[in-house]
């Protein structure tokens, strides 16, 4: 029998309290059939590697049937795995193998749009009315200005009108309805219209299909864009739909996780999501940590990252935004600060091993759900490449995983010319095999931090968070984690110069170092003095 829905909105799957996730871009992870493209059997073959990082959840980028104009984010069949990755049976086997290891599998749900090749859109874009006529947002004529800031496309199909596109022109927006339809614009259907109702019901059916097959939840693409108003997306309208999904999951799939690409955790968690990524849009917080340099920022805006050896960043540019969302969501959901993802430049860009080590010391000791982007655990490099499948300047973050020193770095047996994207050709390219042999490698550093996080709940997802030293334009950054009577202090200095901080720690008599590099912690009356050398960091239990 399904578990009754809790009386409060915020039902949280219990496994998220300790979860650590790993993002897999399947076409670039491991190719097992020699066609140059990664596949689901390849993910299965490397589950033990993922587990060795402390990750107990795998998030797969879209693996459904697609023409791949946007690397699978243009879905042509939500119910079937694309043949280049395998079959539905392969995905079911991936879920079983993950569960056997105590791991979970999350799918990427592109809820807001389809491909122009989806049968729904083909039926809706013809000259005659069909049951799918109102599943997409079409104006009454291709000539008039719709008078809204949305993206409109004309001249596709024989229907007299122009359709709203969610991102690229070939991604027509599904019609979840308008919260303030203009009577003068009959194409703006209210949320309770039969078309939007059918779309909402179908999206829930799709989710049930994959949950029944064995998957454990979803990361939702562009989660805040589905419901419209005259000014663009409507936050309240989007929240209302996702709360319906939240209630369905809490009632029928209580351990299924719902994770959003919203980047405003306060809004996403209020909308029923369990986890929200704080990434490169929504607020400048994440960008100011890692991506402010013009060559690492998709917008091209110049700035200074806090996590850079030049030491010109500002932790408060992150912290002011982060604390606002952390306080609004603590106990109700989680913020995810990922090492990177398929949409942004690699963390390794502009950073060496010591730079990455201090960044990981921060990322794996912050509250919320940590997420490792495939390859970041070995410092996989960002490559400057031509666009592939709509990647444009994101393409360089999607290159094949490098497993060993064999042909194509162990990614594929195909000729190099047939690879999905090229392998890093440099002799000193990082590989898993080489770093397995080096006890001081980034790979082992990540593993050690993950073990510390799991063994010490005070460093984990749910423990409290209080900044102790965070001054505008100053280094280092020092913060406390607290869980019950347990207390821990973490200090990070990404700059290349030595830095120090005096902090107040009432009630703390002694400190035990769990792990550190170029760091000293000296207790003082009512506090401590922390000294960190170049790219130094430390984790101490009080």
- Residues in β-strands, percent: 15-25%
Report the structural category: alpha/beta
Low-confidence stretches: 1-8
Strand order of the biggest β-sheet:
13-12-11-8-5-2-1-14
CA radius of gyration = 24 Å
Q: Largest sheet, if any?
A: 8 strands, parallel
- Average of per-residue pLDDT values: 95
CATH architecture of the largest domain: Alpha-Beta Barrel
Distance between the termini: 46 Å
E-strand count: 20
CATH level-3 fold name of the largest domain? TIM Barrel
Characterise this structure.
- Helices cover 23% and strands 19% of the residues.
- The protein is α/β, with parallel strands linked by helices.
- The chain has 3 domains: 14-114 and 196-454, TIM Barrel; 115-173, Alpha-Beta Complex (Oligo-1,6-glucosidase, domain 2); 464-541, Golgi alpha-mannosidase II (Immunoglobulin-like), CATH 2.60.40.
- The strands form 5 sheets. Strands 13-12-11-8-5-2-1-14 form an 8-stranded parallel sheet.
- Helix 10 packs parallel to helix 12 (442-455).
- The chain starts with 20 loop residues before the first strand and ends with a strand.
Brief summary of the model shown:
This protein is of the alpha/beta class and 542 residues long. The chain has helices spanning 40-45, 47-52, 88-100, 119-124, 194-213, 235-252, 265-270, 285-290, 315-329, 353-363, 432-436, 442-455; strands at 21-24, 57-60, 64-65, 77-81, 104-109, 151-153, 163-165, 217-220, 228-229, 232-233, 257-260, 275-277, 334-336, 371-373, 464-469, 477-483, 486-492, 499-504, 512-524, 527-541. The chain is globular, with a radius of gyration of 24 Å.
């Amino acid at each position: 029998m399904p578990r009754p829905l809790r009386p409060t909105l915020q039902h949280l799957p219990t496994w998220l309290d300790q979860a650590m996730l790993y993002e897999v871009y399947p076409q670039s992870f491991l190719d097992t059939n020699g066609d140059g493209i990664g596949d689901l059997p390849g993910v299965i073959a490397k589950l033990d590697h993922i587990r060795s990082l402390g990750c107990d959840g795998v998030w797969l980028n879209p693996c459904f049937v697609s023409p791949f104009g946007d690397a699978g984010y243009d879905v042509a069949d939500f119910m079937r795995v694309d043949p280049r990755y395998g079959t539905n049976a392969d995905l079911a086997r991936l879920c079983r193998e993950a569960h056997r290891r105590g791991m979970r599998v999350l799918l990427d749900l592109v809820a807001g749009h389809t491909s122009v090749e989806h049968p729904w859109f083909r039926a809706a874009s013809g000259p005659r009315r069909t049951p799918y006529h109102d599943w997409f947002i079409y104006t009454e004529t291709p000539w008039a200005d719709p008078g809204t800031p949305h993206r409109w496309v004309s001249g596709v199909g024989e229907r007299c009108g122009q359709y709203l596109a969610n991102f690229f022109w070939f991604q027509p927006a599904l019609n979840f309805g308008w919260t303030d339809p203009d009577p003068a614009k009959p194409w703006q259907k209210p949320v309770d219209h039969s078309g939007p109702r059918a779309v909402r019901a179908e999206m829930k059916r799709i989710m049930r299909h994959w949950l029944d097959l064995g998957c454990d939840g979803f990361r939702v693409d562009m989660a805040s864009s589905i419901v419209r108003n005259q000014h663009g997306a409507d936050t309240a309208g989007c929240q209302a739909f996702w709360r319906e999904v939240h209630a369905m999951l809490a009632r029928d799939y209580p351990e299924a996780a719902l994770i959003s690409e919203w980047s405003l955790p306060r809004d996403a968690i209020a909308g029923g999501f369990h986890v929200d990524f704080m990434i490169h849009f929504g607020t400048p917080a994440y960008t100011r940590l890692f991506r402010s340099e013009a060559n690492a920022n998709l917008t091209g805006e110049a700035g200074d990252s806090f996590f850079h050896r030049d030491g010109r960043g500002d932790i408060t540019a992150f912290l002011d935004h982060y604390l606002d969302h952390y306080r609004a969501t603590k106990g109700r959901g989680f913020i995810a600060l990922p090492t990177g993802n398929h949409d942004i430049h690699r963390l390794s860009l502009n950073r060496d091993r010591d730079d990455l080590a201090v960044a990981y010391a921060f990322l794996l000791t912050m509250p919320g759900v940590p997420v490792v982007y495939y390859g970041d655990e070995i410092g996989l490099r960002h490559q400057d490449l031509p666009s592939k499948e709509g990647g444009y300047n994101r393409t360089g973050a999607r290159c094949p995983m490098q497993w060993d020193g064999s042909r194509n770095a162990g990614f594929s047996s195909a000729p190099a010319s047939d690879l999905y994207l090229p392998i890093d050709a440099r002799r000193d390219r990082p590989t898993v095999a080489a770093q397995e042999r080096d006890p001081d490698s980034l790979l082992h550093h990540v593993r050690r931090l993950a073990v510390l996080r799991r063994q010490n709940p005070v460093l984990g997802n749910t423990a409290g968070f209080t900044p102790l030293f965070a001054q505008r334009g100053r280094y280092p950054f020092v913060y406390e984690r607290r869980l019950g009577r347990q207390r821990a202090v973490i200090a990070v200095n990404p700059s290349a110069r030595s830095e120090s901080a005096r902090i107040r720690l009432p009630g703390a008599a002694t400190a035990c170092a769990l792990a550190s590099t170029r760091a000293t912690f000296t207790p003082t009356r009512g506090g401590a003095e922390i000294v960190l050398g170049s790219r130094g960091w430390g984790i101490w239990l009080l």
